[in-house]
Amino acid sequence: MGGQSRSAVYKFSNSCYLEDARHFSGSDVNGPVSTVSVMNVGTYAVPRTPLIAPFPSFMTQGSGDTFSVFNTRALHTCTPGYYARTLLPASTFGPQGFGFAQGQSYVPGGCNEYDFSTRQWTSQGGKMTTSREGGTTLNVGSYIMTFGGFNTFGQPVNTVEIFDPRRARVGWQNVPQWSFPRATRDHCSVVTRDPVQGTSVLVMGGRGEEDSAMKLVLGSSQWYSVPPMHHARSLHGCTPVTLNGRPGVVVSGGWDGARLNTTTSVEFFDMNTHR
């Protein structure tokens, strides 16, 4: 399939690709799913025989909230981590305890690379330094970057980590100078090319920041506020596009600000006018 990668959309549990990362649901009525679907964007045909092997079991033991990126060389799928049930002495919960009780321990997230020649998934880069469920991951040049999410206490985080598959032994590294001005989760992020400031990351919406938008200029490590979206959103989708010759980002769907209803609205952010 290596030669066909530019004409197919890859759906990895909860992520859909056209040479980029997108977030979608990754669970069915029975919990997280491990299968990978492929669709040809020219014919919209879905092969009956799976072209990519299912995820290893440890990648689907959490909520199914994986995120993936595809570059010209390989496919990388990351899981933000999950809680594993463990048996703990009941005395852990008080001096009168006896026997054993069930507790939870957190298993940190990490990434796996798919080898198209061997049809095998292998672990890469070790574990992330922070729990990132509800975060986003992007492919920026040769790097994989992950933004935000929430930690083991359910609190949103503002940190950013990067991973270089070319130097997998180094593992995940925090980049303090890129930390968010405001912590968020369940947001959407895309890599864009600002006509003036160069390569940037646009972060939009998310829990507690539903109508906000922020831009990180990678060259200067500076965050800038951009005009808010017309509609409050979390758990929404976004993708970079060129509309009538104008570069920008399309944002669609998601939950509204009160998280009571989903929205069907779609809006466009123009990178030239910042509107």
Query: Which strand order does the major sheet show?
Result: 6-7-8-9
- Count of structural domains: 2
Strand content: 35-45%
- Write down the overall geometry: globular
Along the chain, the helix and strand elements come as EEEEEEEEEEEEEEEEEEEE
- Which architecture of the largest domain does the CATH hierarchy give at level 2? 6 Propeller
Give the overall average pLDDT: 75
Write the CATH fold name of the largest domain: Neuraminidase
List low-confidence stretches: 1-25, 96-101
Radius of gyration: 19 Å
Percent of residues in helices comes to under 10%
Q: At the fourth CATH level, what is the homologous superfamily of the largest domain?
A: Kelch-type beta propeller
**Helix-and-strand structural type:** mainly beta
Describe the structure.
- By secondary structure, the protein is mainly β.
- It folds into two domains: 1-85 and 100-184, Kelch-type beta propeller (Neuraminidase, 6 Propeller), CATH 2.120.10; 186-275, no CATH class.
- It is 0% helix and 43% strand.
- It is built from no helices and 20 strands.
- The strands form six sheets. The chain has a four-stranded antiparallel sheet with strand order 6-7-8-9, with no helix packed on it. A four-stranded antiparallel sheet has the order 10-11-12-13, with no helix packed on it.
- It starts with 7 loop residues before the first strand and ends in a 5-residue tail after the last strand.
- Mean pLDDT is 75; it is low at 1-25 and 96-101.
